[in-house]
Design brief:
- The protein is of the alpha+beta class.
- It folds into two domains: 14-101, no CATH class; 127-240, Trna Endonuclease, Chain: A, domain 1.
- The chain has helices at residues 17-26, 32-35, 38-45, 50-60, 73-101, 104-137, 187-200, 223-240, and strands spanning 142-145, 158-162, 165-173, 201-212, 215-218.
- The protein has a five-stranded mixed beta sheet with strand order 1-2-3-4-5.
- A hairpin with a 2-residue loop joins strand 2 and strand 3.
- Helix 1 (17-26) packs across helix 5 (73-101) and helix 3 crosses helix 4.
Length: 241
């Protein structure tokens, strides 16, 4: 039986998609603080048609800020104008300069650094986050590296076992000055996380970690409270089964 194809309504932007996506993510122009909790809203709505969802969105959407602002078409247009300004005034000049300065040696060194050096840095950072951080914060949990044979291995670095259930950990290294608020889980990764939860019972948590000299630390420390809640949920779940 042929697999049913899901109809897509989104407009393709061709080669412009990459620069639009890069600038939008970099300047957080489609984050909940700007456009509201979009995924939560559409799940509340459960629309049967695009028009139904659009009407519901403009009726219910507010910015996720201390003083929420009603989201309107005018507000979305303003964000589009800001996106255009960022691309033309910042992104294009920066990229143009990078293109002009780029050399063959840069490309060779980059491939080497990503393949060898950054992989090693990431490996050490992962070990430190788990062994010096998570394992000490949650001694009752057995942490282990994700099995390379698992379907989710590319998106989940470690598994935290709570009895026969488990939650997942993805560790993202960032520089001390980086803003991890720009990070956005892709649709593919979201599907992988959901698949993991269905198989192991627990959620997947993304931990941002940075290194300053020899010191390694978790940047989004609030994630530890979320993990603690999940551990207690899995314990309870285990006892109820």
């Amino acid at each position: 039986m042929a697999k049913k194809q899901t109809k897509k309504y989104a407009k393709p932007f061709g080669t412009k998609e990459k620069v639009l996506n890069y600038a939008s993510n970099t300047y957080q122009l489609t984050r909940p603080k700007k456009v509201g909790a979009v995924m939560a809203l559409i799940r509340e709505c459960q629309p049967q048609a695009l028009e139904e969802w659009e009407e519901y969105y403009f009726e219910k959407a507010y910015t996720a800020t201390k003083e929420p602002i009603k989201v309107t078409q005018e507000l979305l247009d303003e964000l589009g104008e800001r996106l255009y300004a960022k691309i033309t005034e910042v992104v294009i000049p920066e990229w143009t300069k990078a293109f002009e300065d780029l050399t063959l040696e840069d490309c060779k060194e980059y491939i080497y650094q990503v393949t060898i050096v950054r992989t090693y840095d990431g490996f050490l950072l992962e070990k430190s986050v788990v062994n010096d951080g998570l394992a000490k914060s949650f001694p009752e949990v057995e942490f282990e590296e994700s099995d390379a044979e698992l379907d989710h291995a590319g998106d989940i670095d470690y598994i935290g076992r709570v009895g026969k259930y488990a939650f997942g950990i993805q560790i993202k290294p960032i520089t001390a000055s980086a803003n991890f608020g720009n990070y956005k889980v892709t649709d593919r990764m979201a599907a992988s996380f959901q698949s993991f939860e269905k198989e192991f019972g627990g959620k997947v948590f993304v931990i941002f970690s940075t290194r300053t000299g020899s010191k390694k630390s978790i940047v989004n420390k609030e994630i530890l409270d979320e993990i603690k809640i999940e551990i207690e949920r899995l314990k309870k779940y285990k006892n109820e089964r």
